[in-house]
UniProtKB/TrEMBL annotation:
It comes from the Eukaryota. This is Uncharacterized protein. It comes from Champsocephalus esox. Keywords: Signal. Residues 1-16 form the signal peptide.
Length: 488
């Protein structure tokens, strides 16, 4: 260890303190003719300047071959505080690979938690997942190199934690036992929750200054899955892990923590944090970011995202971020994060809250089956187009997609193809012909009289498909087993 640290010191020691952190994510791509898999790893690399170099290493020789690496500037802070670049690394790896990539170096910016050497580790898992029938994609996130908060203001940084596979994403600090950092002292003024919220509470001016944050984000399957390799391995632990490292600067106290005065406040139509946006291939997505800070002369937009995102200022706290996804990014989801920073004097900078959006490359899914509405209930329909198909002595409302789990919002009783009055099954109960959801056991119909078909009710959102077998099933999941319990 000492030897390698000495070597690093010799290699990098001439530099002043300069590192501002990194993030790495990955997407598996196509399987090649020779059976190998292409994986695209994207990383952000932040330094004081735009020219400092550092390369990700493969310590275990099983990372396949790097077929391309491009590095481009993403954004620079206006006073020259930091520069963030994006690296896009393409590797050709044996199918079913798992490997780690490491970034190490010296030195972090000066910081109150006394960290000098950096080390970041990405755990790539490309074995075939039993639940999705393909390789895992890592959580997708990014971060700005330096976030600021005045020492007297409370702030929660809700970090983006999007997972394209729908996994549960959890955050934790990097752990020295797992070699995820060299020096792992956590920032004393910040607390990190498993749900990726980094919280700062007002603190004494003695604690002002920069802190380094060295985190790990991991994706966990929501159900036990197996990863195929020599017959399969069952996992319910983390699948992949990515490093998220950056700085938080605790600045001198501000006269008021009210947003919109010193601290910039976002105005409409700035997208909400964690908003999901859609951009088809070759079509430019424009994101408007508007902010105000009444006690400020200058506002600037700082962002992180794909390197070919363009930012422009329209004046008066109005900004535009524009990104055009390419063919290679079709179907993927990429994050864009931003803050607005006010500069009241040459040394005083205040930042808005952090916001991130996730941009999914493709068309926005058409919302035809999920939006509840009482006037035109278009969600959920009877798959058959005439009443003869609805047989009260047989199954009713059989879903066309048998793998899907239906719940009460996604399954109403409205026929799109007529032969039924629009609110057919909302008619008062008189006999089996005009009511669809007659339970075989009246006991259940009385479980929740306002939410079942026995009552006169033409409000479709009141219709509850509480499974016959489980009266405690909340929020009223309507699964395939229970469908058998519904008769005309
Ligand atoms: C992954 O599993 C799915 C379903 O079992 C299978 O169709 C697919 O070919 C597998 N992919 C690879 C790369 O083995
Ligand atoms: C670090 O990882 C080790 C090994 O998995 C574990 O025992 C330990 O509790 C972890 N430490 C922290 C602070 O999470
Ligand atoms: C900032 O000034 C605008 C325009 O005068 C006003 O509408 C807004 O309420 C002010 N914001 C705050 C936080 O005082
Ligand atoms: C996007 O543009 C590229 C280059 O102009 C073109 O090759 C590709 O076919 C276009 N894709 C779509 C979906 O428009
Ligand atoms: C971004 O700016 C570059 C250079 O000015 C330009 O070539 C590119 O088309 C712009 N992209 C978008 C999405 O506006
Ligand atoms: C009714 O559905 C059947 C089978 O799903 C289909 O063949 C037929 O064309 C439909 N009739 C009308 C009028 O939509
Ligand atoms: C209704 O279902 C019963 C029992 O499954 C069956 O015997 C009958 O033929 C069905 N009637 C129609 C019109 O489909
Ligand atoms: C209900 O089902 C729809 C469609 O399957 C889904 O979009 C929605 O999230 C589900 N709602 C709940 C509460 O699970
Ligand atoms: C069932 O209700 C319908 C419509 O109200 C009516 O036409 C039919 O005669 C009723 N059948 C019986 C058996 O009561
Ligand atoms: C109907 O409900 C009663 C009372 O809860 C229960 O004893 C009986 O088993 C139920 N019948 C069926 C067919 O589930
Ligand atoms: C419900 O439907 C009945 C019968 O069609 C109608 O008279 C009543 O006005 C409706 N009520 C509401 C709240 O829509
Ligand atoms: C329908 O029922 C839901 C749930 O009880 C209620 O929130 C909603 O206001 C109702 N809508 C109408 C039009 O009565």
């Amino acid at each position: 260890m000492c030897v390698s640290l000495m070597l690093l010191l010799l290699v990098c020691g001439a530099q002043s303190t300069h590192f501002y952190g990194t993030v790495m994510t990955y997407y598996p791509k196509n399987t090649n003719a020779d059976g190998s898999l292409t994986v695209v790893l994207r990383y952000k690399l932040s330094f004081h300047d735009c020219s400092t170099r550092d390369l990700w290493q493969c310590p275990s020789l099983n990372c396949g071959t790097q077929t391309s690496l491009v590095l481009n500037v993403v954004d620079q802070e206006s006073s020259g505080e930091w520069c963030q670049r994006e690296g896009i690394m393409t590797r050709r790896v044996p199918i079913n690979s798992q490997f780690q990539l490491e970034l190490t170096g010296f030195a972090w910016i000066n910081n109150n938690n006394g960290i000098m050497f950096w080390r970041a580790v990405t755990g790539v898992e490309l074995r075939n997942r039993s639940d999705i029938g393909q390789a895992n994609t890592s959580p997708q996130t990014i971060i700005l190199p330096a976030l600021r908060v005045p020492s007297n203001c409370r702030r929660d940084f809700h970090l983006l934690d999007f997972d394209p596979d729908g996994d549960e994403v959890r955050c934790r600090y990097a752990n020295s036992s797992l070699s995820e950092c060299f020096d792992c002292t956590t920032p004393s003024v910040l607390s990190l929750s498993e749900s990726c919220i980094l919280s700062f509470s007002p603190t004494s001016s003695a604690n002002e200054g920069p802190y380094t944050v060295q985190m790990v984000m991991e994706d966990f399957p929501r159900q036990t899955i197996s990863l195929t390799q020599n017959g399969g391995l069952t996992v319910n632990s983390a699948i992949s892990k990515i490093p998220v490292q950056f700085a938080v600067r605790v600045d001198p106290a501000v006269p008021s923590c009210t947003e919109g005065l010193y601290l910039p406040r976002f105005l409409t139509p700035t997208p909400a944090n964690k908003a999901q946006l859609y951009a088809p291939v070759n079509q430019t997505l424009s994101i408007s970011v508007n902010a105000e800070a009444n006690v400020s002369r200058t506002l600037e937009l700082l962002f992180s995202g794909p390197h070919n995102t363009n930012k422009s200022s329209l004046g008066a706290g109005r900004f535009l971020l524009r990104w055009t996804p390419s063919q290679e990014e079709d179907g993927e989801s990429h994050p864009i994060c931003f803050v607005v920073q006010s500069i009241t004097s040459s040394t005083t900078k205040y930042q808005s809250e952090l916001r991130c959006v996730i941009v999914t490359v493709g068309n926005e899914p058409t919302i035809s089956t999920a939006v509840p509405s009482t006037t035109t209930p278009t969600f959920n329909y009877h798959p058959y187009n005439n009443s003869l198909n609805y047989n009260y002595s047989s199954l009713n409302n059989y879903p066309t997609d048998f793998d899907q789990q239906y719940n009460y919002t996604s399954y109403n009783h409205y026929s799109i193809n007529n032969n039924y009055p629009t609110q057919h099954n909302n008619y008062p109960y008189t006999n089996h012909t005009n009511i669809h959801h007659f339970f075989t056991n009246d006991t259940y119909t009385n479980n929740n009289p306002t939410k079942n078909s026995r009552t006169y009710n033409n409000n479709t959102s009141n219709y509850n498909h509480r499974p016959f077998t489980n009266s405690d099933c909340s929020p009223y999941y309507y699964n395939i087993e229970s469908i058998r319990d519904f008769y005309i």
